[in-house]
Amino acid sequence: MTATIIDGKAVAASAIEKVKAGAAAFSAANGMPPGLAVVLVGEDAASQVYVASKGRMARECGFHSVQHTLAADTTQDELLAVIGTLNADPAIHGILVQLPLPGHLDERTTIGALDPAKDVDGLHDISIGRLASGQVDKTLVPCTPKGCMELLETVHTEGISGLTAVVVGRSNLVGRPVAALLQHANATVTIAHSRTRDLPALCASADIVVAAIGRPEFIKGDWIKPGATVIDVGINRIAAPEKGEGKTRLVGDVDFTAASERAGAITPVPGGVGPMTIAMLMANTLKAAQHSVA
Ligand code: NDP
Questions:
Q1: Which residues have CB under 8 Å from 52's CB, separation 6+?
Q2: Looking at residues 211-233, what average pLDDT do you find?
Q3: Looking at ligand 1, which atom is closest to the CA of residue 174?
Q4: How far is the CA of 132 from the centre of ligand 1 (A)?
Q5: Contact yes or no for 31/285 (Cβ under 8 A)
Q6: What is the structure's pLDDT at 1?
Q7: Residue 289 to residues 156, 261, 277, 282: CA-CA distances in angstroms?
Q8: Are 288 and 120 in contact (CB under 8 A)?
Q9: Ligand 1 in contact with 235 (CB < 6 A)?
């Protein structure tokens, strides 16, 4: 069998088109566009790239887009003051604090200071609690897990009710929320992690495998049940001597070439889950704006 390749770029582009239409309708009805504020502390090069692309996409969607760039030595109180100002700003519907923060700042305290109604990353304790208790419609769901579900929907058009799913990874950012969403969609979910015994056999039992580990090509092709759907969240940069000395390439957490011989459908890396994350951030900002006037 050769798997269907799930085209994350195309699914993300169509999600963005929907957001643009929703933003135009929101602006027409409310006299202002949805507003997204991104807060960056310090000068981490990768974070600067992520923040810039979020701002660009927000403007493309027709949003009011604001970026607060704070010095690396910003104190916790100063950061909380910026968040307080954004919480109180009626033109801002979504606030994203780019992680990781410099080591002297506490992430939970920082995220905890966000107005949960503006928590477009879905990382506030209230957002996590609502997701865990099945109140998916009342909360903002973390962007990467939400993107995984939208990709699954393109394959499982009748839903995933009754299917078995194994999520490898239990981070607050990806593994845990994706498992909660799969369960909410009535899959039977197992969460695996670094202490799991016999991961190959567990994966081989699953109709859906979601890999969120952070280890290049860790999940082997022969672990995949024939016909299963594989969602590869991992982004790992490895050496690519075949491209020339010092060159690198991106791979996922799944051995894509071998797994695509057995899977029914699989996401590539790059071009699978990655493009969905930013699209879902835009969708969450629009949702937050719509809720603010509902
Ligand atoms: P974390 O490092 O926070 O979590 C990794 C998880 O994998 C942990 O739960 C860990 O288990 C588990 N794990 C580690 N080693 C093994 C193993 N040998 N067997 C089974 N499980 C193992 O990573 P994230 O969840 O933040 O990210 C995961 C991957 O997804 C990364 O490659 C990251 O770059 C990528 N990512 C991609 C995004 C996108 O937009 N596509 C967005 C976010 C992340 P334990 O809890 O026991 O330590």
A1: none
A2: 98
A3: 25
A4: 19
A5: no
A6: 66
A7: 30, 43, 19, 11
A8: yes
A9: yes
Does 170 show up as a binding residue in the annotation? Answer: yes
33 lines ligand 1 (CB under 6 A): no
Q: Can you read off the two tokens belonging to residue 204? A: 């081989």
CB 249 within 8 A of CB 240: yes
Residue with tokens 């929703």: 22
Query: 11 CB less than 6 Å from ligand 1?
Result: no
Kindly give the distance from the C-alpha atom of residue 169 to the centroid of ligand 1, in angstroms, as a whole number.
5
Domains in the chain, CATH or no CATH each: 30-124 (3.40.50.10860), 142-274 (3.40.50.720)
Active-site annotation, residues: 54, 98, 121
Q: Is residue 195 lining ligand 1, measured as CB closer than 6 Å?
A: yes
Q: How many CA atoms, within 13 angstroms, populate the side-chain half-sphere of residue 236?
A: 20
Question: Taking the model in full, what pTM does it have?
Answer: 0.97
268 Cβ inside 6 Å of ligand 1: no
Establish whether 171 is an annotated binding residue. yes
> What are the tens digits of pLDDT across the range 233-250?
999 999 999 999 999 999
pLDDT digits (tens, 9 = 90+) for 143-156: 999 999 999 999 99
Residues whose CB is less than 8 angstroms from the CB of residue 182 and which lie 6 or more positions away in sequence, other chains included? 149, 160, 165, 167, 189, 208, 210
What is the four-CA torsion angle of 269, 275, 276, 278, rounded to 10 degrees?
140
Asked casually if ipTM beats, i.e. exceeds, 0.95, the reply is: yes
Total number of residues shown for the chain? 294
Helix (H, G, I), strand (E, B) or coil at 190: strand
237 marked as part of a ligand binding site:
no
